[in-house]
Amino acid sequence: MALSAQHLLASALLALLLAATSATDSKNNPADELVTLINANRTASKASSLADNQGLGCIALQYIKAYKGECNEVGGNKKPVESSFIDTFAPNCGVQATTLAKITGRLLACQPAYPPPAEAFNMLISDARSLDVLHSKNHTEVGAAVTGTSGGGPYFWCVLFSSGKPNSSFTVEGGVPKTAHPGCFSGNNDECSGAISTSVSAWRLVTAILFALAGAFTL
Ligand SMILES: *[C@@H]1O[C@H](CO)[C@@H](O)[C@H](O)[C@H]1NC(C)=O
Ligand SMILES: *[C@@H]1O[C@H](CO)[C@@H](O)[C@H](O)[C@H]1NC(C)=O
Ligand SMILES: *[C@@H]1O[C@H](CO)[C@@H](O)[C@H](O)[C@H]1NC(C)=O
Predict the structure, then answer these.
(1) How many domains does the chain have?
(2) What is the distance in A from the centroid of ligand 2 to the CA of 102?
(3) Can you give the residue range of the structural domain that contains 100?
(4) Is pTM beyond 0.85 here?
(5) For ligand 2, atom 3, which residue shows the shortest CA distance?
(6) CATH number, position 77
(7) According to the lineage, what is the superkingdom (predicted)?
(8) Are 168 and 99 in contact (CB under 8 A)?
(9) Atom 1 (ligand 3) nearest CA
(10) Residue 81 counted as domain residue
(11) Is 163's C-beta closer than 6 angstroms to any atom of ligand 2?
(12) 166, part of any domain
């Protein structure tokens, strides 16, 4: 009797622990994780580490939204017109138009199921051309974004590179980009509680509870 109570308590504690872990994880930003992978790969190839610019990250999320969830448009020649940066992307983010800098590279990928950052990296860097973009010495800064489409797939990842000065390009009025949920972008302290991280955490919680129940039933 005392032993089963102990088991039950241990299972409950384990469930709480796993739930707490997933709560912390939900604050993690997958777009920031992708930037970390990008910089790790660049520095391993003797290219510079790039500044993570929140204004550029926010614009990367706008760039995705311009595709309106149309996965089949990715990889073709169709891409948002250049004037979108100044006409819609910058104003939607609160980025000051005068601080827009040259885009020196862009990577975009899309698939029906959510690819976590490491998988997204492999999707984005899929050939020699994208590897050249990744390792280009033209870049000084980067912004990344990820989002699903109306509460589910397809999921889009976008990385924009720029040669602007990290401190004075893509600067945001008031220092905080306009939030644009759903979706996550890099360089800010956004908890990113959009559809992506919420569903991941929910699954972890369910797993934790099942784990605890399994523990409780094998007494
Ligand atoms: C960088 O990424 C490319 C493409 O995925 C890969 O082939 C290469 O091994 C990576 N380099 C390092 C040092 O991880
Ligand atoms: C770097 O910039 C130069 C000059 O604009 C351009 O010719 C070159 O293709 C760029 N390199 C890459 C890898 O994009
Ligand atoms: C510019 O960026 C550097 C780090 O990259 C930082 O140490 C410095 O304070 C920044 N300057 C301004 C004016 O924000």
Answers:
(1) 1
(2) 12
(3) 27-217
(4) no
(5) 138
(6) 3.40.33.10
(7) Eukaryota
(8) yes
(9) 167
(10) yes
(11) no
(12) yes
**Is 86 within the bounds of a domain?**
yes
Longest dimension (CA), the chain: 72
Q: How far is the CA of 63 from the centre of ligand 1 (A)?
A: 26
Beta carbon of 136 within 6 Å of any ligand 2 atom? yes
> Of 37, 39, 41, which is best to mutate to test ligand 1, by the most ligand atoms within 8 angstroms of its C-beta?
41
pLDDT at 19 over 50: no
For residue 185, give the 3-state DSSP assignment.
strand
Q: What sign results for the dihedral spanned by CA atoms 180, 32, 157, 108?
A: positive
User: pLDDT digit string (tens) for 95-144?
Assistant: 999 999 999 999 999 999 999 999 999 999 999 999 999 999 999 999 99
pLDDT tens track for 157-210:
999 999 999 999 999 999 989 876 789 999 987 767 554 644 444 444 444 444
48-86 burial: b if 16+ Cβ within 10 Å, else e: eebbbbbbbbbbbbbbbbebebebeebeeeeebeeebbe
- The closest of 1, 46, 12, 23 to 197, measured between CA atoms, is 23
Give the tens place of pLDDT for each residue, 32-91.
999 999 999 999 999 999 999 999 999 999 999 999 999 999 987 788 999 999 999 999
**Cα 166 to middle of ligand 3, angstroms:** 8
125 falls within a domain: yes
Quote the ligand 3 centre to 192 CA distance (angstroms): 25
